[in-house]
Amino acid sequence: MFYAGGRDFPGDADGRWAILHAESTDGIHWQADPEPVLTGDIVEMEDALNPEVLRLPDGTYWLAFSARVEHSHFHLFLARSADGRHWELVSLKELLSRGKEGSFDERAINHPALVQVGGKLYLFYTGYDHRCRRRIGIAIVERVMSKAYVSDASL
User: How many CB atoms are located within 10 Å of the residue 95 CB?
Assistant: First the structure.
């Protein structure tokens, strides 16, 4: 299970969010890994949270997540892994940019959810308009990414 949790840093009263991992053999008792899977440092930000992991048929894992600096708006990023434990950032470029002025997602995008159906990868996300009203957005990738995919991953 991947989840977000707070981490305490010296001199940081608010703590910071990181993506964490835990395993269970029975679904009731969980053992958390001692170190975070990802921190915001990987994308030059403070917080990393809202993880969504998808395992593709070729065995590659993809992790979409949110990141932010000091309570600013969220950004979405993508990392990949061959084993679900060791992650590499696909690009420092955002996975998906906020919408233009007047759009339902002009203020922020957050809460990624990945779904693969056939040869398409769907990214559902929460969009925030200028009044912080929330709506669900979707972006579609026509070609499913695999471990051979190395170019910038922008949906």
Answer: 23
Which positions ≥6 away from 4 have C-beta within 8 Å?
17, 18, 19, 20, 48, 49, 50, 51
Kindly report the length of the chain. 155
The number of folded domains in the chain is: 1
In a domain, 44, yes or no: yes
Its pTM stands at 0.81
Q: Which of 136, 126, 20, 141 is nearest to 90 (CA)?
A: 141
Tens of pLDDT, residue by residue over 39-91, are 888 888 888 899 999 998 889 999 999 988 666 788 898 899 999 889 998 88
Which residue from 102, 36, 107, 113 is spatially nearest to 75, judged by alpha carbons? 107
